Amino acid sequence: MSDPLLDEVRWDGATLRLRGTLPGPATDVALVLRERDGDRVHELPAEVRDAGFAASVAAGALPRGLWDVSLRAGPATAPLAYHPGLDSMPRRRFLPDSTMVIAYFAPRGGGLALDVGGAPHPAGSTTADALAWNADDEELVVRGHLAVPAAETPVSATLVLHERGGATYEVIAMLEAGPDRLGYTAAVPLTRAFVDDPLPRGTWAAHLVLGFAGMHRDLLVFAPADPVELHVRRRLVPVRVTTARAPEPLTISVGR
Predict the structure, then answer these.
(1) Alpha carbon 152 to chain centroid distance?
(2) Which end of the chain has fewer CB atoms < 10 Å from its terminal CB, N or C?
(3) Domains in the chain, please, with CATH?
(4) Is 63 exposed, middle or buried (0-12, 13-18, 19+ CB in 10 A)?
(5) Could you tell me which residues are beta bridge partners of residue 217?
(6) Cβ atoms within 10 Å of 212's Cβ, excluding its own
(7) Predicted confidence (pLDDT) per residue in 181-196, tens digit
(8) Could you tell me where the DSSP H helices lie in the chain?
(9) Exposure of 92 in the CB half-sphere (CA atoms within 13 A)
């Protein structure tokens, strides 16, 4: 079965309306929503219209998560790609309970997906290029890059540090877009020289969270070849700071 093509994707209140063309004749069609990181599958009715189909998704009935949307025609199932003339930008809608739902197409002509809840979803990993100590601002600087085509550049990036006890610490990462790569730089404050809340004591695992028009993708950051080991002063007391070494995931240990 060739891929069906969507000609229309629009929100009507809390309902997502879909209309598209079929690659061949069909009488038994249905919309299939499959949980990307789980086992749940929902099959919704679709209607054959002339050489195409129409279907609706009541977003409020979907559990939170990431759902890949396909079309079943008879025994065959195919992802829902989009017609070249269709605007492929993500479409956001807030439900009455304030839950955000995003209908978007996967990169490089991929199929339709629904992100219910807008929570960061695991998206693989990246390795930091280098760590450096900025003595002027008393910050640990994390630099790296991603192989991201210009058309898929995220609108934001955050370095999120997770402590083993469940706490998190976030710093904004600056982005620098190139033709086929995206550079990022994040500075983690380690003293109270310029901020009131530097990175607390503990061991912190680094994640890079990328924002794409409401969607968030979480990448585990791996350590570069050269670690950092230094002492900073907090309330006149020297505090040891160390980082993990490649090929381990990047962790920052304060006072350990």
Answers:
(1) 12
(2) C
(3) 5-119 (2.60.40), 122-254 (2.60.40)
(4) exposed
(5) 121, 210
(6) 17
(7) 889 999 999 988 777 7
(8) none
(9) 10
* Distance, first Cα to last Cα, the chain: 58
Reduced to 3 states (helix: H, G, I; strand: E, B; else coil), residue 88 is: coil
Amino acid at site 152: E
Q: Which amino acid is at 218?
A: D
How is residue 138 written in tokens? 């008393």
Cα-to-chain-centroid distance, residue 84: 24
pLDDT band per the 50, 70, 90 thresholds, residue 47:
very high
Could you tell me how far CA 159 lies from the centroid of its own chain? 13
To which H or E segment does residue 11 belong?
strand 5-12
- The Cα 107–Cα 105 span in angstroms is 6
Which among 72, 81, 78 is positioned nearest to 105, based on CA atoms? 81
Q: d(Cα 176, Cα 147) in Å, to the nearest integer?
A: 12
Per residue in 102-154, pLDDT tens? 888 876 667 898 988 877 777 789 999 999 999 999 999 999 999 876 556 77
C-alpha distance from residue 159 to each of 22, 48, 147, 194, 206 (Å): 43, 47, 18, 19, 7
List of residues 6+ apart from 8 with CB closer than 8 A = 17, 18, 19, 20, 86
The Cα–Cα gap between 69 and 88 comes to 15
Three-state secondary structure call for residue 46: strand
Write the DSSP symbol of residue 145.
E
